[in-house]
């Protein structure tokens, strides 16, 4: 029988949920093709990091200055470039900000319907955001 090898994901993202809204960020990229594109906050695992949850907590603190409570794992999704992103649902344990201005241009809270509208207008960065939201709503229905 073949041995199963666990590999760590390229990056983690948090689908931050508050009052039935989802937080999206607009990264401060130099790549003009990404201007106007939004996604969930998060980032890459550093070479010394093996625990995606630890990375998620670090990224939320660095990018958004907020501690989070993990609700659960939503799933692994692939960007258009083929990189794998492990997405967690989480709740902020306080106010967002200040944000890391050299990485984040802006933040916004959207309802699922608004996120779907942005999806149809191709305003989402990776292409997996709507699929991840759908998976979240199946696992963790709104109260």
Core attributes:
disordered N terminus, 6 strands, 6-stranded mixed sheet, alpha+beta, 143 residues
Helices and strands, in order, run as: EEEHEEEHH
The number of E-state strands comes to 6
Anisotropy-based shape: globular
> In angstroms, what is the radius of gyration?
15 Å
Query: Strand count, sense and closure of the main sheet?
Result: 6 strands, mixed
Tell me the helix content.
Answer: 10-25%
Distance between the termini: 44 Å
Structural class: alpha+beta
Average of pLDDT? 89
Low-confidence stretches: 1-5
Task: Work out the strand percent.
Answer: 25-35%
Helix tally equals: 3
Outline the secondary-structure elements.
Elements: E1 11-18, E2 21-27, E3 42-44, H1 52-64, E4 68-78, E5 84-92, E6 104-110, H2 112-120, H3 129-139
Parallel strand pairs: 1-5
Antiparallel strand pairs: 1-2, 1-3, 2-6, 4-5
């Amino acid at each position: 029988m073949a041995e199963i090898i666990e590999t760590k994901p390229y990056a983690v993202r948090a689908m931050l949920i508050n009052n039935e809204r989802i937080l999206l960020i607009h990264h401060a990229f130099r790549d003009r093709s990404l201007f106007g594109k939004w996604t969930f906050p998060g980032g890459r695992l550093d070479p010394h990091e093996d625990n995606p949850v630890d990375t998620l907590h670090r990224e939320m603190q660095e990018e958004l200055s907020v501690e989070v409570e993990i609700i659960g794992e939503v799933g692994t999704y692939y960007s258009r470039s083929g990189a794998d992103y492990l997405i967690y649902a989480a709740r902020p344990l306080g106010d967002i900000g200040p944000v890391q201005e050299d990485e984040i241009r802006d933040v916004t809270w959207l309802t699922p319907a608004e996120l779907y509208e942005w999806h149809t207008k191709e305003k989402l960065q990776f292409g997996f955001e709507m699929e991840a939201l759908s998976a979240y709503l199946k696992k963790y229905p709104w109260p």
